Amino acid sequence: MHNFLSILEKLKFGETVLVEYSSKAPIYLLFHELIKWSRENNYPVLVDDFLDTLHMYKSQMEIAGIDTSLLNDLNVIKIGGAINIGKVLGRVPITESTVLEREYDKIFEKLPEEKMINLVLGFDKLFILHSERKEFIPSIYGVLKYLGNKKRIAFYFINADLIKSAVPEILPIMEEISTAVVSIEEKDGFRINLLKPLNI
């Protein structure tokens, strides 16, 4: 974990990092470490919380005995879901993807002009909800549109098991868009693999 966090120092604002994990991996550990790293570097954290995924992470952290008080002052944009954690800056309903992207943009554009770490949780669930492939396009465009935005370094947490079984074509598209790809697996503990080079 320490080696991975030291590599983060090489990232530039505007980058998008895809974090792929299996359903069995304790991904909340990496989430917790990223928040601590952000605080240590005085970067505010923005969480895009799809369908109460932040609540799931918090609950897993509590069961594991990890202090969750650092979640209390997170800035959060909620996309669907109903459980509030942190400071909720705005809500976006789960509806047509074009409407979702438009409403999200309105909230993001009002954020202060400062550099932030943007942790995107549960984005993969969005594709499960879409009934037609054409609805994927605005969501993918939303990721592409924010690529290069110097206001943030984004980390998209994606359950690779879920995506591969439901909409396998999404994963290679996300990998192509992202400037870095890491894979998390539970093998001899918590293992992080670099699949696409970070900016080093």
Brief sketch in words of this structure:
This protein is an alpha/beta fold and 200 residues long.
Task: Describe it.
The chain is of the alpha/beta class and 200 residues long. It has helices spanning 2-8, 27-40, 53-63, 97-109, 123-129, 136-146, 160-166, 170-177; strands at residues 16-21, 45-50, 75-79, 87-92, 116-121, 152-159, 180-186, 190-196. It has an eight-stranded mixed β-sheet, with helices on both faces. Helix 4 (97-109) packs parallel to helix 6 and helix 5 runs parallel beside helix 7. The radius of gyration is 16 Å and the shape is globular. The two termini are 17 Å apart. The model has no long low-confidence stretch (mean pLDDT 88).
Defining key terms:
single chain; 200 residues; alpha/beta; 39% helix; 26% strand
Number of strands: 8
Report how far the terminal alpha carbons are from each other: 17 Å
Protein structure class:
alpha/beta
- Residues in β-strands, percent: 25-35%
Unreliable stretches covering 5 or more consecutive residues = none
The secondary-structure element order is HEHEHEEHEHHEHHEE
Largest sheet: 8 strands, mixed
- Shape from CA axes? globular
The average pLDDT value, as a whole number, equals: 88
Secondary structure tally, helices: 8
Strand order of the largest sheet: 4-3-2-5-6-1-7-8
Oligomer: single chain
CA radius of gyration is: 16 Å
The percent of residues in helical segments reads 25-40%
